[in-house]
């Protein structure tokens, strides 16, 4: 049975310092008051950026802090290729679902995309920060639930023009951008994925506009299809990541 997982952002520093490890703050409170960890119990600690430790709970200090001893620890290697999902903003009820499913399937990062046909509009600083906060929370929760050692990062929201620049930058580093389109001629199985990075572009429920499709294609994005069915925006990245997983060394 896998161990319950908690995120300690300064885990690497704590391990380097030696002595007891501390699980505190919201994660400590969740472990102690919600999951009711007990002294002597083993849990998994992750930094979110690759450092991990299997640890034993030595003592509980109140309702939101515990002292632990590291039983084993290490550093998870980064997968190759690294996969970023450029996710067009879904409607509110599907927004966090898209991040949850993509995280479970192994996405390394998410890039929120304000596409032309998005029903959701992240306009104004407060709305943008609220949306980003929800995505970060969903990514962390899904990473812990699926026992991931790395938590996907969430970048700032991108316009189509900014996404075009991101694709150009990616290609200059030897990466490939895959634009998921149900009517694309090339199946994902025929793509050359022996690259350091992949950017998956997932459109909104209303589809990518012809103008956006042309702009992204001009920047170097390759149109690919996942299969005969048309997938919803919340599940498309999960299916694509599964395909990439078996077509590369990621899995």
UniProtKB/TrEMBL annotation:
Q: What is its main location?
A: cytoplasm
Q: What does this protein do?
A: Specifically methylates the N3 position of the uracil ring of uridine 1498 (m3U1498) in 16S rRNA. Acts on the fully assembled 30S ribosomal subunit.
- InterPro entries with a match to the protein in the record: Alpha/beta_knot_MTases, PUA-like_sf, RsmE, RsmE_MTase_dom, RsmE_PUA-like, tRNA_m1G_MTases_N
Query: What PANTHER family does the entry give?
Result: 16S RRNA (URACIL(1498)-N(3))-METHYLTRANSFERASE, RIBOSOMAL RNA SMALL SUBUNIT METHYLTRANSFERASE E
Provide any one GO MF term from the record: rRNA (uridine-N3-)-methyltransferase activity
Q: Which reaction does it catalyse?
A: uridine(1498) in 16S rRNA + S-adenosyl-L-methionine = N(3)-methyluridine(1498) in 16S rRNA + S-adenosyl-L-homocysteine + H(+)
Family in the record = Belongs to the RNA methyltransferase RsmE family.
Q: Which residues form the Ribosomal RNA small subunit methyltransferase E PUA-like domain?
A: 23-68
Q: Which CDD domains match?
A: RsmE-like
Q: Which UniProt keywords apply?
A: Cytoplasm, Methyltransferase, rRNA processing, S-adenosyl-L-methionine, Transferase
Subcellular location per UniProt equals: Cytoplasm
Occurrences of domain Ribosomal RNA small subunit methyltransferase E methyltransferase (ranges): 79-244
Query: Do you know which NCBIfam families this protein is assigned to?
Result: PRK11713.2-3 (NF008693), RsmE family RNA methyltransferase (TIGR00046)
GO cellular component terms, alphabetically, are: cytoplasm
Q: What is this protein called?
A: Ribosomal RNA small subunit methyltransferase E
Return any one Pfam family short name.
Methyltrans_RNA
Q: What is its EC number?
A: 2.1.1.193
Listed GO biological process terms: rRNA base methylation
């Amino acid at each position: 049975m896998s161990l319950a997982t908690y995120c300690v952002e300064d885990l690497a520093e704590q391990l380097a310092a030696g002595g007891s490890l501390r699980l505190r703050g919201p994660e400590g409170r969740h472990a102690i008051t919600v999951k009711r960890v007990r002294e002597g119990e083993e849990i998994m600690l992750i930094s979110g950026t690759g450092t991990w430790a299997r640890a034993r709970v030595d003592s509980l200090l109140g309702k939101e802090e515990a002292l632990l001893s590291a039983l084993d620890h290490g550093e998870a290697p980064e997968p190759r290729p690294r996969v970023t999902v450029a996710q067009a903003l879904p409607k509110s009820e599907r927004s966090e679902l898209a991040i949850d499913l993509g995280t479970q399937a192994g996405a390394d990062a998410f890039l929120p995309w304000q596409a032309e046909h998005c029903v959701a509009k992240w306009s104004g600083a407060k709305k943008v920060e609220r949306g980003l906060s929800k995505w970060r929370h969903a990514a962390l929760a899904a990473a812990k639930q699926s026992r991931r050692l790395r938590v996907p990062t969430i970048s700032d929201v991108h316009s189509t023009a900014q996404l075009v620049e991101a694709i150009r930058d990616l290609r200059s580093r030897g990466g490939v951008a895959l634009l998921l389109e149900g009517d694309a001629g090339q199946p994902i199985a025929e793509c050359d994925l022996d690259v350091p990075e992949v950017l998956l572009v997932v459109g909104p429920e209303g589809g990518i506009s012809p103008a956006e499709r042309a702009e992204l294609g001009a920047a170097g994005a390759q149109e690919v299809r996942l299969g005969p069915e048309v997938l919803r925006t919340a599940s498309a990245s999960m299916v694509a990541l599964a395909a990439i997983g078996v077509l590369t060394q990621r899995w």
